[in-house]
User: Fold these one by one.
Assistant:
Number 1:
Amino acid sequence: MDSNEKKQCKHKYIVGYSFRFPQPFFRSLPCDNCGCSIRLSLLWRIVYWCVDIIGFILAFGVSTSIHIKFLGSTFFISLFIFLLLIWTVHLIGRLILKYGKWIEVYKK
């Protein structure tokens, strides 16, 4: 593939399954269209990090402040709320990865 075809590629990385979901501080990922190495632009990376970190802290805070007893303990409800909120944060992360601006990583 020559450089003209790479410039015309609309880079994307689709997270269809949880095993394709990258870590919060990922360096680069392969493009689903052309296979070259891509990364999020700086603004989108900052938004991705903030959503991930603030979402985790918020989910922990909300889940520990729940005082609804189920089977004599608040553990099960707190765990359910925490997992529900983390799932929501991952859905937001998927949207960021889908609609964010991807740029090509140039190798030195």
Note: The two ends are 19 Å apart (CA to CA).
Number 2:
Amino acid sequence: MVKLLADSKQGQNRSRVTPTNVSSGKGLFSNGDQLDPKRKKKKKRLGFAVCPCSCSCAICSLLIGLLLVIGLAVALAIILTRNSSQTASTTTETTIITTVSTTVTTNATAITTPTTDNEVTTEEVTTASTSTTDSTIATTQTTTLCPPTGIVNLQSFSGVMSLWTNQQFNYTATKTSPTLVFTTVSTNRIFYLDSVSVVDTTNSSIELLQNPGFDNSSTALFDWLLWCSSTCGGSGGQLISSSCLSGNCFQDACSGGTDYLLQTFSATIGSTYTISFWLKRSGAGGATGSFSIGIF
């Protein structure tokens, strides 16, 4: 009887989980982990490993978004520049500086190993990264001036020109992009312009103007700009197909105001260019108005 009781007690002792069993790593809650600070730090580092990846993805998404915004701004600046060039006479370079600051915050939760048999310790870690991008967009903006400034007048016409007459002038370039301009001030007169030409005197076979005879146009003036026609009380400059020297021509009857027909061409400073065109005038009355050619 005594022997049976002793055997029973020894069996109970063998089935009991001792601190030695736990520290050896066989139990769920390991005292060995609690006593080994190196293993604890390693597990903490594994807990934080999620954060950098999330931050990198967020920052990459932010940078892609900023590049798209900059691309749209550049496209918009180009579109605005082209639209404004139809009514402007001087150009000024401006610089637009845009600064974008964005803070990306990522939350992560790291779980440490238990410190006791019945407790689990959790630690919430919040990381934040800030990305600041400075972008510089250089644009060219135009300013409308009526009349244009800096015009050098080559010749004015106000006499009788009931028939088409050819006019010709020489011009020595002082800039690489001069602008040819025809100015009309008309009272009871209509001026007609056709077959305009600008050539280098050393190579007259190359025409420097686009659409010089207005024949590439149908209802609108292509390659030419018409400024300040809103100041005209009568009909300002327009494209017509009748009463022309050949094909289409330009007609202007600006009354009470002044409008300008112009086109820019490429030149070499110091080179001489021949400017020629055909002109006539119609109408009657005391006042004659004037038509002039200039460069700016």
Note: The two ends are 128 Å apart (CA to CA).
Number 3:
Amino acid sequence: MEPTTTGRFRVLDCRPDGTILLVDLAEATAAATGADPDADLRPIAVTPPAVDADKPTDGPDIDAETADTIRSLEPGYVVEAELAWDDSDAAFLDCTITNHTRIQYADGVTGLFEKAQETWHDAQVAGEAMNSAVTYSTGKEPNGVVYVFAKQDPPRDLFEEFRTGATPIEPLIQRVNATHDSDGDDGADSDGDDPAERAVFVLNPADEPFVVVYIVFRKGGMLAQTVRDTYGLPAV
């Protein structure tokens, strides 16, 4: 009998070969709160179900509804999932989406917004390799947090490291959820006590020496849509 694990996971990325990268949120929370600074934040690569239900597969049997849920996953979603393990290979046994936060990646962007440039300038003045700042709406309400990180010398590629999980992005999201749970540019984007659904943008400027992670408090707000429009990202 294959060993299994059950937990809450963030979808970090959906790779071109169909592999889904998951981050264990229990480990991420422990790291973000300081309960376990050495928590394992390495992503779990999970094999998706076969697209053709009639095609034989070595993976576990799952029902059609679960298979459809898995195929609908997007980077940023939070799921409650049961995983089956065959040595170091993981596959879904069950999957339920509990939060529709989105992570979107944009490489080679130009025309970077002013607050990101100011935040990087402040980092340079302070002699730091990273910095963060809260952004505000025209009504002076907080609507996001921008992080800037110095690009690294080759062979390191910080943008790709965020995408693959080599450099964890989840602690940044956890920090925003802990300190800005009900903030937003147009009101709440979630019901009850559930964390708000964020829009997370990982931007790799073509002509700047830093990478940007911009966490907008409301996925469906005007600010998030403006960022998507500006950098050619699809609507969600």
Note: The chain has a mean pLDDT of 90.
